[in-house]
Structures are given as C-alpha cells and as structure tokens.
Amino acid sequence: MLKVNKLSKYYGELEVLKNINLCIEAGQVVCIIGPSGSGKSTFLRCLNLLEIPTSGKIFYQGNNVMDMTSEIKELRKKVGMVFQRFNLFPLKTVLQNVTMAPVLINKVSKEEANNMALDLLKKVGLAEKANVYPSTLSGGQQQRVAIARALAMNPEMLLFDEPTSALDPELVGDVLDVMKQLAKEGMTMVVVTHEMGFAREISDRVIFMDGGYIIEDDTPQEIFTNPKHKRTKEFLSRVLQK
Amino acid sequence: MELYFGKAIKTLGPSLVTGVGVVLEVTVIGFMGAIIIGFLVAIVKMSKNKVARWGMGVFVELIRGTPLLVQFFYIYYVLPLLMSNLLKAVEIDYNVQISSVMAGIVGFSVNYGCYMSEVIRSAIVSIDPGQREAGLALGFSEIQVLIKIILPPSFRNSVPVFGNYLVMMIKDTSLLACIAVSELLLRTQAYASQTFLTIEAYTLLAVVYLVISVPLSQGVKMLEKKMNKFSRS
C-alpha cells in the first residue's frame, strides 16, 4: 500500500532520517517506537509530505507521490493524520471541525456530512458534544474529535503522531480504546507512540528507530520479548522499567 | 462674557448632524477598505515571492513616512492630474476627477490599511502552525488553509486592535476639512466665521466628537475584555 524507498531528510547539515526503506501493507497496524530525537515523528510527517524528504521516493498504491504537487493533495485526502496537540479549529464547533473537510474538499452536501459526522462522533463517544467548541473539551475528548475529523475524509490509512503524549494519564485510555477499535475494523495505521502496552497489544509490526535509522522492524512479540539489537534492548529496558 | 450655546445648538446643531452622517459614511467605507487592504498587504508581505515582498515593503514605508493630510492632498489634487496627463499621453482626452469624499475614503483605506497590516501580520504569525498542518493533512490547499483556517482566527484576534483604529479614524476625519469634505470641522468653521460664535461653535464641535468616540472606545474596551475571557484552545 505504502512503500518508502531510500528516504532521507536533512535539516541543513543535520541528517535526521537516514536511508529509510519500508513497506506497509493494507490493514497493518504499525507502531514506531524509539527515544526522542530518533526521527520517528519526522518520518511519519514525511509520509503525508508535511515534511518534504531531501531524497528518496514514497509510493502510495504504486504512484510516486513526490513527483507531482497535485498528487500531494490526493495523498493527503486518503491518508489522514492525528497530531500530538490535536490541532482542532478553535472557532468551529466539534461538528463543524468534523464536517469542514468533507464539505469543502469532497463536496459532500452539508446534510450528508452532518449525518456522517454525528455517526463518527458517536463512534468516538462524543455525540453529545457535537455543538460545543473544542476549548470546552478535555484533551482526551479533543483528541477523539481529531480522530473523528480525520475519519470524516474516509481515509484508507491513518497516521498518528504521538496521539496520547499531550494527555493527562487518566485520559489516555479513552483515546487508545478508539484506536484499538479502529485497528480491529481493519484500518491501516501507523502510530508513533510511547505507549508500549498499546504497541505490544495492538500492532502487527513494531519498528524501533534510533538516530535516524530503522534499527529493528519485527512483530511485537519479537521486539518486546526477544529484541535483537543492543540499542533496542537498552531502550526497552529503560522504558519498561518505569 | 456672554455665551449663546442655545443659539449655537439650534442653528449649528442640524448641520453637525448632517456632518456626522458624512463622517460615518467615510469611516465605515474607509475602514472596511482598510481591513481589506490590511489583509492584502499582510499576506503579500508574508509571501514567498521576494520581489512582491520588497515592493510591498517600499509602498508601506512610503505611506507610513508621509502624513495622512499630505496623502489626502495628493489623492485629491495630484493623482487626477497625473492620470489625466497620462491619458493625454496615449491620446485620450478625459479629465479624471475624484470627489473629495472618495479621496477621503481611498486615503483612509490605504493609510490605515498599511498601519493595520502589521497588526494583522502579527495575528497571522501568532496562529499555531499546527492549524496549518491540520488543514494540509486533511487535504486542503495552501490557499484554502489561509482563507478558511488561518484568516478567521487572525481576524478575530485583531478585532480589539481594529476598534482602536476605528476610533482614531473617526477623529482623523477632521483632516478632510482641508480637501473640502463637508464634515464636522468645515461646517463649524463656516458657521463660526459667519456668526462669530467661535467659543460656542468649536466647543460644540468638540462635544460632538466626544459623544461619538467615548462610547465607541468604551465599547472596544468591553469587547477586548470579553474576548480575553474566551481562552483560546
């Protein structure tokens, strides 16, 4: 479904992603873990071209998306993204946040978009919050709205950039539950996360990144119980101790 | 000393009421023009095109480096002449004219637009870059992101500062007396020179300005407070 070929990214002289190769199949749930500064968020942001890679190729359904600027928009319609800091639109109600893109981009009628949005909000457990503004919601609720907003475009794939890192611990669970539900329904997901329990339980594959490289790419069982690389072992022993 | 305020109110009053109409007309249209020009200037000054950015920078410096009164004279007397002469050069015999009210509206739009563009620019800059990214990630184009996602909150955050400019503009309409717009000052001047009720006439004029601007600036303050209460998420 998504194929990354020899991708690298420089910020000036600093090489933050080094020769990344990766294939993601439809329906897979892939978690990317690793220490901060390892390039995992940058990598994720390269996948929908919020960061433009310095070199390398990204193929989505066989098309090289870096060739044409018009392809970028098409790619982004199909690949949704959920951010660490939610990034809801503050002047729009919860419902408007969800319907905005389908109405303006996909030219869905307002009525249809509203019905779909209400279904999605029900799905993330926030149907009763449809007409309030995001600032009145807790972080966990805002993040669930952000997931509904991304789902409203009927994406084929979802990218999650540390979706629970900005949340109070007691709110993390609600967001993870929604993500688990999506995973069960067969959504293709790439999740940058520090939630090792989630990575272990839900993902089909776990990728460990460090220093701009993919160090290890394996099933969660292998990564968590039998890591092959020294750096993976060190990282896991540090985070799992806590 | 005997003062005839009663007489001044009776005879100058109705004329001033008409003058207030002129002032409001120029201010309302001029201010809307200023907001539009302010946004255009701000957007061009933030564009990626170096030449456009530089050109706009020069223009803004020209406007900010000359007095508003001089600009009114330039728009009212010089621009029509220049344009007529230019047309003559291409063999079109047309006498370009601009009404004094129109000159006032144009002058205010451009002058205030340039000043307000800085407010607008900082409001745009203060919008969390995550908003732009969220828009792009949903599939919006850069222009859609600007219009639908970035500008509405920038506008909203600028409203209290706009209010202060609005009050200033109302007071600055007195400059238009110099290009023969029959606003408040010109009417008062004519009245005072006819009746010699100088003290009464100009005092009344000052009161009329106060009656407009004090409630307005209080309103702006209230708006500011109200908007600060709504915490931005």
From TrEMBL, chain A:
Keywords: Amino-acid transport, ATP-binding, Cell membrane, Membrane, Nucleotide-binding, Transport. GO terms for molecular function: ABC-type amino acid transporter activity; ATP binding; ATP hydrolysis activity. GO terms for cellular component: plasma membrane. Residues 2-236 form the ABC transporter domain. It is found in: Cell membrane. It is a peripheral membrane protein. Its main location: membrane. Pfam families: ABC_tran. Belongs to the ABC transporter superfamily. This is Amino acid ABC transporter ATP-binding protein (PAAT family).
UniProtKB/TrEMBL annotation, chain B:
PROSITE patterns: ABC_TM1. One of its GO terms (molecular function) is transmembrane transporter activity. InterPro entries: AA_ABC_transptr_permease_3TM, ArtM/GltK/GlnP/TcyL/YhdX-like, MetI-like, MetI-like_sf. It is found in: Cell membrane. It is a multi-pass membrane protein. One of its GO terms (biological process) is amino acid transport. GO terms for cellular component: ATP-binding cassette (ABC) transporter complex. Belongs to the binding-protein-dependent transport system permease family. The chain crosses the membrane at residues 20-44, 56-76, 96-115, 202-223. Residues 20-217 form the ABC transmembrane type-1 domain. It comes from the Bacteria. This is Amino acid ABC transporter membrane protein (PAAT family).
